[in-house]
Write a sequence for this structure.
């Protein structure tokens, strides 16, 4: 399968799509060399964002992490809250933000000030139209008011021998819940669709069959609903009784592998999903797939560094583009990874990496190659503050030198050099800038790149 892969080195760009409004696109990583993960994001009224996730402060301590960004991805503030991690943020109808942390729920204003904090065990939270919200856990649904107090709490285990996966509102303003039975085999009606009123009263229960575990649910027209698989990129549309309307799979053949973490309904009536993709060479990228209302794929895009990059949440923005939040797992030093695209899924130029570099550069710089991954050519940029002999060499994963791109005297300045890997096989390579002979301190830096044919 041929996939378009996007990555670059700048902060943001403003593109104009025909006569439409401007669409700002950018990519950023946020981290400080620890394990920082991004899980959920919402857009604020000023077209900025509030993002939530996990930050590890010490070797064994992690906390709920929240940061507010402007529309260009620049940080306005960051805050640490009690709790291991924040998995979900929703904007309430009273213009506050409710965050689901592990074993707790808390509400903040746009400046990060805590309005209230409550104990909670909800896996999923869903905004209600009265400033409150619903929570789902196991076989229970709980209604909260705008102060985080429990209005009602219902357990439906007497009706089902199973557990809930996800829930949403249908066109009748009922809560619809999808789940799995624990005693049904795969050739029977192994899933269920339950409907309850907003006061928790039971409405109906229908059994249906699907070959995957439902992961996320989105309500669509005429009380129909769409669910995503818990693993591979797969969406299925069902009618209000659980009868399949269409069932589509979006992935290639082995050794390609993909996994879905989130999907949403888009403004045009279609869908977009996000997750992770790898090509069989242990290079993982953020995967976005745009799907039309009939379940057919319209486009797909890959983003990232090829370390172990995942898209965990996707939202459509006011300019009809999309914003992703996820993880760049850089050799177990994770960073929060956020991508803002236009409506066609493009983000140009892509990445500005905000992370601590412990190497003393002395004014030297070796930049990430662009594009990366590449096929078969890529550009390597570097700058030197002192004239001297400079070498740039390419190495494979075993450390064997495979090519010398440069070995000559260079004057002070910034330079670009092209690397053509047409004579090499797909895989991970390293490029090293060596200016150790240029001054008394010297400078050597190595970066990683991926050739993907």
């Amino acid at each position: 399968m041929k996939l378009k892969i996007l990555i670059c080195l700048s902060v943001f760009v403003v593109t104009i799509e025909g006569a439409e409004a401007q669409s700002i696109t950018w990519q950023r990583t946020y981290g400080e060399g620890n394990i920082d993960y991004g899980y959920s994001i919402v857009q604020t009224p000023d077209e900025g964002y509030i993002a939530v996730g996990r930050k590890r402060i010490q070797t064994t301590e992690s906390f709920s992490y929240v940061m507010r960004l402007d529309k260009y991805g620049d940080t306005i503030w960051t805050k640490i809250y009690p709790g291991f991690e924040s998995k979900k943020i929703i904007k309430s109808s009273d213009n506050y933000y409710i965050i689901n942390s592990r074993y707790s729920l808390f509400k903040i204003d746009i400046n990060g000030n805590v309005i209230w904090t409550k104990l909670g065990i909800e896996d999923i939270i869903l905004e209600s139209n009265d400033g409150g919200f619903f929570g789902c856990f196991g076989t229970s649904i709980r209604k909260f008011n705008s102060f985080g107090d429990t209005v009602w709490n219902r357990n439906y285990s007497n009706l089902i021998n199973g557990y809930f996966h996800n829930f949403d509102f249908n066109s009748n303003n009922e809560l619809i819940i999808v789940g799995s039975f624990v005693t049904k085999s795969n050739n029977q009606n192994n899933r269920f669709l339950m409907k309850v009123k907003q006061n928790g009263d039971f409405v109906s229960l229908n059994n249906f069959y699907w070959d995957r575990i439902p992961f996320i649910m989105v309500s669509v027209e005429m009380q129909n609903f769409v669910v995503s698989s818990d693993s591979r990129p797969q969406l299925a549309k069902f009618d209000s009784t659980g009868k399949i309307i269409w069932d589509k799979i979006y992935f290639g053949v082995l050794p390609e592998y993909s996994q879905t973490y989130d999907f949403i309904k888009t403004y045009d009536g279609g869908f977009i999903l996000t997750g992770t993709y790898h090509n069989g060479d242990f290079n993982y990228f953020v995967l976005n797939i745009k799907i039309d209302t009939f379940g057919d794929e319209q486009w797909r895009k890959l983003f990232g560094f090829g370390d172990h990059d995942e898209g965990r949440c996707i939202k459509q923005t006011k300019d009809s583009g999309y914003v992703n939040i996820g993880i760049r797992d850089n050799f177990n030093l994770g960073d929060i990874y956020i991508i803002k695209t236009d409506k066609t899924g493009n983000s140009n130029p892509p990445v500005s990496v905000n992370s601590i570099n412990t190497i003393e550069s002395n004014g030297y710089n070796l930049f990430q190659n662009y594009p990366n991954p590449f096929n078969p050519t890529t550009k390597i940029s570097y700058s030197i503050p002192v004239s001297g002999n400079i070498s740039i060499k390419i190495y494979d994963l075993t450390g064997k030198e495979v090519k010398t791109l440069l070995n000559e005297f260079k004057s002070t300045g910034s330079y670009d050099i092209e690397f053509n890997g047409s004579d090499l096989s797909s895989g991970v390579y390293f490029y090293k800038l060596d200016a150790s002979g240029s001054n008394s301190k010297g400078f050597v830096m190595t970066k990683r790149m991926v050739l993907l044919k």
